[in-house]
Amino acid sequence: MKDKKRDLKAYDIHFAGLKDGEHLFEYQIDNHFFELFDYHEFNEVSQRVSVHLVKKSTLLELHFSSQGTVNVNCDLTDEPFDLPCEATLHLVVKFGEAYNDDNEELLILPQGEHTLSVAQYIYEMIILSVPAKRINTHAANLDEVLDTIEAFSPKELETAPDDSQTDPRWDELRKLLNK
Length: 179
Hints:
It is built from five helices and eight strands, in the order αββαββββββααα. The chain is an alpha+beta fold. The longest helix is centred in the C-terminal third of the chain and has 11 residues, at 119-129.
């Protein structure tokens, strides 16, 4: 637990000592970062994250961007492959009475706060950049897998049931409705 907190401190931005204007923070994200969040869906991660901070007298603007790859298993072939991913995120930080992160694009920090942890924002941005369906379109046996899926997919009935014959019980009920 102690190591986790210490490792997450590497993603803290101490904005109190920064001058007004633009500042750039860069992070190299790998598997260790996701282990801090107990997330094990990726085989391998290599993402470069840039946080462009614009400090103003009353607020902070943060522009996150990430680009790189995540190694995941293909949903069709179950073979690992590198999936290119990139994402952006915009966050405005204002200062108020109490902490409030109800709005995903606006964070309110208490007056007097001097540090902002961007780890959670980086984590969510990368997770959301990975598509729900992970298909390796360059897989050598993709055609074979698609043929197998097609062979086992449910087929439509070749002959449609004859609607001209109805159950006589329903006919009697329809007579009652038409009266």
